[in-house]
Design brief:
By secondary structure, the chain is an alpha+beta fold. The chain has helices at residues 105-130, 132-158, 161-213, 218-246, 250-265, 269-276, 278-300, 466-472, and strands at 9-15, 26-29, 32-43, 46-53, 64-69, 76-81, 95-96, 98-101, 302-312, 317-329, 332-355, 358-381, 384-391, 394-403, 408-415, 424-432, 437-444, 454-464. The protein has three domains: 9-102, no CATH class; 108-258, no CATH class; 301-472, Porin, CATH 2.40.160. 39% of the residues lie in helices and 36% in strands. Strand 10 (317-329) and strand 11 (332-355) form a beta hairpin.
Amino acid sequence: MQLGRAEGYTLFVEFDSAAGLDPNAAVRVAGVEVGRVKKISLVDHKALLELQIRPDINIGRDFTAVLTTKGLLGEKYLELLPGHPGAPPLKEGEYITRTRAYADIDRLITILSDVSLDIKKITESLSNVLGGEAGEQTLSNIVKNIEDLTFRLNRIVAKNDDQFENIMRNLDSFTAFLTSEGPQVTTELRTAIKSLSESLLATSENLDGMISENRGNLKEGVENLKAASLSLQQAMDTLNKVAGELGPDISTTMSSVKSITQKIDQGQGTLGQLVNDKTLHENINKTVSGINSYIERAESFQTFIGFRGEYLFDARDTKSYLTLRIQPKADKYYLLEVVDDPRGKITEESRVVVTDGVPSTISETKTSDQIKISAQIAKRFDNFVVRGGIIESTGGAGLDYYMFRDRLKLTLEAFDFSRDGGAHLKAGSTLYLNKFFFLTAGYDDFTNNVGLRSAYVGLGFQFRDEDLKFLLSSAPPVSF
């Protein structure tokens, strides 16, 4: 509960990792500081953050906690993303259950480190290829091959004068555009060139440092470059052969490309509609938005599988429960149970006994195991959970009350209202030892007058199943 002290109230949130986040880091909502990280501790191999929130700030139950960084190299802080405006606020000592981790500068540094290793390998290869007289001869061969390539390209160009005339007309149009828009284009180019020169200067300084550090490894790079030049020579021979065979067809190919681009500009065909149809663009944007909504819903979707056994003292037998809890939201879930009840089926048998010639009827009541099914819908309101549906194969309802940050649960259930002895009432409590194991105790059927009521104690476990989560999160949501 919120105490209203001058220093605010305390909330908790868990992360798989809080690397880079320091105690006393800022807690912000919409960029505005609303508190501080009071303490960071390790609990069950996770980072538990204790937050001190200002007393005038209400944090809703559907807020999402995100670890992020201020600027590119700034300090880390905790950002709280608001949910629905009408969500009830968290109280003193409660947990923020929704979290999300953003990629930060540490990951960026790792990627840049991998890139630097690739550049180092390239410089080593250049060193091996360009070193010594063999490297000079290799470079000479490369230049000769390039001269041969330009000669052959000139021959191809001479056979396609019409295409080059079209290119020249396009250049005339381009120069006319530069004449009319020259001043503005010049200003933009100056700005872009200045920015590019600054970037190239910084890159050049970095490369100079890398080359000076790896000068001894350039020999291997020169040898690799020599092998590359031989491969280039083979590729040039193949290209010359292909160019000689396909030279007459280049003009036809260019005409076909021009026809295709005109059809695309006019909106003809599937590709033309994709480029020019605004309605199609809007539909694609709606589809992407729907996918994002589905991913967010899948991230908040949780499934829990559990089992518990309750030992009934009066029956001297154990009642077993196999549980599946499907929780699409923090305040709503569906509960499915298979129950093995040792007293589930009650039968009466009568037999006649003759004593000293006098007959008498004796009635016996027998109980036997029976499998029962429970299927309930549950909704949470603050610390109360209201349940209803089918309980042990009959209609029923239940009420749960959570205490001590959901470590202790008190339960009252009522079902089987149509039986002769009145409704079946069960009261109990559950103590959660950790996120896997729990203890339970209570009194079953405590209003029954035919000998079926019994105290019980039990032990159980539960765990979250990620495979079921992605199967069930594709189902359409149900609101109530």
